[in-house]
Amino acid sequence: MSIQTGSAQEAEKVTWLACIPFASVHLMCLAAFWTGVRVQDIAVCVGLYFVRMLALTTGYHRYFSHRTFKTGRAFQFLLALGGTLCVQKGVLWWAGHHRHHHRYSDAPEDIHSPTLRGFWWSHLGWILCAKYEATPIDNIRDFARYPELRWLNKHYLVPPVALAVALFFIGGFSMLVWGFFISTALLWHGTFTINSLSHVFGNRRYKTTDTSRNNWLLALITCGEGWHNNHHYHQNTANQGWFWWEWDPSYYLLKLMAWAGLVWDLRTPSDAVKYAHLRYDAQERATLRKSSRFFARPSVARVRAAGEKVREAIAAARETIPVEEPAP
Ligand SMILES: [Zn+2]
Ligand SMILES: [Zn+2]
Fold this sequence. Notes:
- The chain is an all-alpha fold.
- It has one domain.
- It is built from 16 helices and two strands.
- Helix 3 packs across helix 10 (158-195).
- It is globular and about 80 Å long.
- It starts with 15 loop residues before the first helix and ends in an 8-residue tail after the last helix.
- The model is unreliable at 1-8 and 294-298 (pLDDT under 50).
- The structure holds zinc ion (ZN) (2 copies).
- One zinc ion (ZN) binds at residues 101, 105, 199, 212, 228, 232.
């Protein structure tokens, strides 16, 4: 049942059978050209995107993967149910794989490192791979002991199918297309950016052993998960935006739930963690700045260095061209 960690790259192939449901959801989005669109369809599409994203970030990610707060057994089940509506497989599967990512991030064992394996693999290839189909139960034994979670993990398609059917009966075919298929496709790609783009684009504030970055745009799309460098630096905090300007609606929702008594013991970073970057010396800061690609401006030195490289390449190529002797 457990995933292999030693040779992550062997036998990693996208299974075309797994692609069929994935591609079908995308194809069904095209039905919008036929059904047309109403204001209520757009409202349900956007509403279900954000409600489900919040269920995923607070439940699947911050609770089941990282245990950043506490709750009772009934609300724990509701969190799992909300995350299951996102059609990203079962809660134990998701959280188990995610824990593995943190353990080995950007090391050869990491299942979805964009730095080592490229954009498409990290974005969706690994999800469509037979090797990672099973739930890595060894990584999630703490939650696997609950029978209701094991049931939901096994029957993860039941809640989303029920949602799709309900949308069809409430708002007809166009609400099914917009509220379920388009909303779900957007939700998938919004979530997947955290595995792909947030290890490539953005700023690095903290020294971590991976390439995680903070990116405000991805934080907007993912309700606060774009502060990925913060998160990799200290993964056990209920908030991922650590400063007031770091937009984190998932945490605002958790605060609201704590106020209502649904969750408690929200863990937040200590000042030593939060301000760790202030203790870095000039050399360490320069290294972090260098690795920030998204906001990096082309500097004169960088353009000169690139020009120098081109000149060297031309000179090297010239040396290999045979010089013709002039005819006598
Ligand atoms: Zn990551
Ligand atoms: Zn995480």
